[in-house]
Design brief:
The protein is of the alpha/beta class. The protein has 13 helices and 15 strands. The chain has helices spanning 15-28, 44-48, 70-77, 79-90, 99-103, 108-123, 136-156, 161-175, 182-202, 218-233, 257-274, 292-302, 366-369, and strands at residues 3-8, 33-37, 57-60, 63-67, 128-132, 208-214, 238-246, 279-283, 319-324, 327-333, 342-347, 350-355, 358-363, 372-379, 382-388. The chain is globular and about 60 Å long.
């Protein structure tokens, strides 16, 4: 079965390096591996030290890399829809606007990336696809895109093809705009089907997982906590946390001692926040992380002792939120905990859960931050916390 892995995190944490290092480790195992960059500001080629294109480029044995070119993919796969949207706007005398500007609406990069992943999945040409994502916010937008665009297209093109065939001759002169033809409706229907397929693939925990890249810094960890919560809301499987640029213990220069102490504190915070997810550590290397040799070094260090870096490392849905009447139930998996050892504290956008000597800090989604805790119960390793009312009442 193909494996799809998405690496995400705050901008500048080293997602591209970690993605490339994982890709090299995968290829070394004999797995046909494709690395894709979906970040409009591509840096995968820079990291590898190789110029990449909009088609897969062979990097080494069993390893290919690609930087998605949205305009290229749009022209190749959405020709009819492009022409129709252009015709629709120009019929309304929208002047001084190009085809690319008309059809590259916000989120189109996300759509093209998802459809490209689906294409490769169906071809079954690769064993592993590793996606170097844009920073966290864009990644979350991309992963929510199948739901959002499906709704948008259903609203925008609600007329079924058979009905459209009957009313087009009469309606078009009255409306003064060109109505979509059968082939355009067919292409739109095909896109909707593909989005539904992509949704199923992304939520299949045996196929797809997300790995969050962090540095041991407070702001980075806070954003990672929030993205973890939101990824769980969409039921995407986060199977590991990758901690990058950790100052090695053998660095003894006094200049770095304060930074080592700070990182030690935040490494503990990461473990408290994301347990029981597996956590992998990559050191701050003495050289810039560019080129295959340095990326291989990173991968060897990151996955030392792990005989399969691309296997699913964790597949338990640890957080879930559902609405019941006027309340929200936040369910949290707390394995091996004793009920009498559990305690809760709600402070702003943070929920602090204690289980004996262990503590977990969870950044709540905005849906819950203005609500108060009404009660909680613990059954079969699941802590269910009821939110309602308002902190302003």
């Amino acid at each position: 079965m193909m494996r799809i892995m998405l690496y995400t995190g705050k901008g500048g944490v080293g997602k591209t390096s970690i993605s490339a290092a994982t890709g090299i480790q995968s290829a070394k195992r004999g797995l046909k591996t494709l690395m894709m960059s979906t970040d409009p500001a591509h840096s995968l080629g820079d990291s590898l030290g190789i110029k990449l294109s909009s088609e897969p480029t062979e990097i080494m044995e069993n390893l290919w890399a690609q930087e998605i070119n949205t305009t290229y993919e749009m022209e190749k796969g959405w020709g009819k829809i492009q022409k129709y949207i252009t015709l629709l706007f120009t019929s309304k005398t929208v002047d001084d606007i190009t085809v690319e500007e008309l059809t590259m609406f916000p989120g189109m990069e996300d759509l093209m990336s998802l459809l490209k992943v689906l294409e490769y999945y169906k071809e079954n040409k690769y064993d592993v696809i590793i996606i170097d994502c844009a920073p966290t916010g864009e990644t979350l937008a991309m992963l929510s895109f199948p739901d959002m665009l499906g709704w948008w297209m259903e609203k925008l093109f609600p007329i079924k093809r058979k009905v459209l065939k009957v009313v087009r001759p009469m309606a078009q002169p009255l409306l003064g705009i060109p109505l979509p033809t059968d082939d355009i409706m067919g292409e739109l229907g095909n896109v909707l089907e593909q989005l539904d397929e992509m949704r199923q693939i992304l939520s299949n925990r045996d196929i797809t997982s997300v790995r969050i890249v962090v540095n041991p810094e407070k702001m980075v960890i806070k954003e990672a906590q929030r993205s973890f919560t939101y990824l769980n809301l969409y039921d995407y499987n986060v199977d590991a946390v990758m901690v990058n640029r950790v100052i090695p213990d053998n660095v003894s220069d006094p200049y770095f001692q304060v930074w080592k102490d700070i990182q030690r504190k935040y490494k503990t915070m990461i473990e408290d926040s994301f347990a029981p997810l597996p956590i992998y550590y990559a050191p701050l290397f003495e050289q810039e992380m560019v080129g295959l040799e340095m990326l291989k070094r990173m991968g060897d260090t990151l996955f030392q002792g792990d005989n399969n870096p691309v296997s699913v490392k964790f597949s338990l849905r640890t957080q879930h939120i559902e609405k019941q009447d006027n309340e929200y139930i936040f369910a949290l998996h707390v394995p091996f905990a004793d009920k009498k050892d559990l305690s809760l504290n709600h402070k702003g956008d943070e929920l602090i859960v204690r289980a004996g000597s262990a503590k977990r800090n969870i950044t709540l989604p905005r849906t819950l931050t203005h609500l108060t805790i009404l009660g909680a119960k613990f059954e079969e390793d699941i802590l269910k916390i009821r939110f309602g009312g308002s902190t302003h009442e």
